[in-house]
Amino acid sequence: MRTALVIGAGLIGTSAALSLTSRGVTVHLDDHDLDRARTAASLGAGTDAAPDGPVDLVIVAVPPAHVARAVADAMVRGLGRAYLDVASVKGGPRRELEALLRGTGQDLAAYLGTHPMAGKEKSGPLAATGDLFEGRPWVLTPTRDTDTEALNLALELVSFCRAVPIVMDADAHDRAVALVSHMPHLVSSMVAARLENAEEAAVRLCGPGIRDVTRIAASDPRMWIDILSANPGPVADLLAEVSADLDETVRALRALQSEDETARKEGVGGVEDVLRRGNAGQTRVPGKHGSAPRVYEAVVVLITDQPGQLARIFADAERAGVNIEDVRIEHATGQQAGHVQLMVEPQGVSQLTQALRERGWAVRT
């Protein structure tokens, strides 16, 4: 791949363009908002000038509702040798594209639907980074009709972005992302909505649990309306299952208020059931490097809000010979301090705790 055209200079399109330009590919940027294309170009993602002729790969990075028309327009105009999109829904746009191309002399051989499983709460070119996709799954949905050239160019793009290619059927992909992305986003938003009119005294008690659950609720609603509108069926099916669990859990909690001992026991059983099923589901979430999740222990260190605190902790952990597997930070309410949780292998807890205490850190496990 020597040349590419990115249509849609948002977070995903600009991040892909940054990755390609860093590998020496000449990238042309196009967006209906000229300022976005200019901004992306100013960040080093390519040029906002139109290509002189067909490029090797056209990357369509527009919302799902506009994918089919954008790809069809690019194909009819002959803008590239191969075409792919990066939208989060695959089945519907592909069927719509097939319908749009009827009678145009074009077919789907040069097209491949893809979806990089990466993103941020913020959107737009200013949020883009060249390493956004590094180590992340990038789904490819080829069919028997897909040209080898189109597939190879898509794989080259994934390689340049240092992502991990995963081949799936388009409709299977849509059901999967409904489960792991679209439905959780709506549930996160529903939980966050409870905070909108909550008393200030209650909101001040927010800790890492509520922050974890509501983090993705900060995303742009307009973007998510586009996504959910393109995949409503699978998401609605999953929410119906969640709704049934909620109804059962509400009944169980009400039973715990009963004066009848039998009813209370049934309530305990109902709550325990959903919690245990939650435990079982959580253990299936891939852990480090995509492997089965491992159990780590937390070494908790009190830190102040000053430059260099985290760097010092990491350096001291290195001297102790203990690898930090994950890091979480909990900020103290109303204070310039907080706790950093260093997740380590169980056998490293004692060694790290002793080393940090010897260097003056306030540590608890």
Describe the protein.
The protein has three domains: 3-168, Rossmann fold (3-Layer(aba) Sandwich); 245-281; 297-364, Alpha-Beta Plaits (2-Layer Sandwich). It has helices at residues 11-22, 34-42, 64-76, 91-101, 148-160, 170-193, 200-203, 208-214, 221-230, 232-256, 261-282, 309-320, 349-358; strands at 3-7, 26-30, 55-60, 80-85, 111-116, 137-140, 164-167, 297-304, 326-331, 337-344, 363-364. The chain is α/β, with parallel strands linked by helices. Helix 12 crosses helix 13. The strands form two sheets. A seven-stranded mixed sheet has the order 2-1-3-4-5-6-7, sandwiched between helices. A four-stranded antiparallel sheet has the order 9-10-8-11, with helices on one face.
List keywords for this structure.
365 residues, 7-stranded mixed β-sheet, Rossmann fold, 4-stranded antiparallel β-sheet, alpha/beta
Element layout with pairings:
Blueprint: E1 3-7, H1 11-22, E2 26-30, H2 34-42, E3 55-60, H3 64-76, E4 80-85, H4 91-101, E5 111-116, E6 137-140, H5 148-160, E7 164-167, H6 170-193, H7 200-203, H8 208-214, H9 221-230, H10 232-256, H11 261-282, E8 297-304, H12 309-320, E9 326-331, E10 337-344, H13 349-358, E11 363-364
Parallel strand pairs: 1-2, 1-3, 3-4, 4-5, 6-7
Antiparallel strand pairs: 5-6, 8-10, 8-11, 9-10
Helix pairs in contact: 3-4, 6-10, 10-11, 12-13
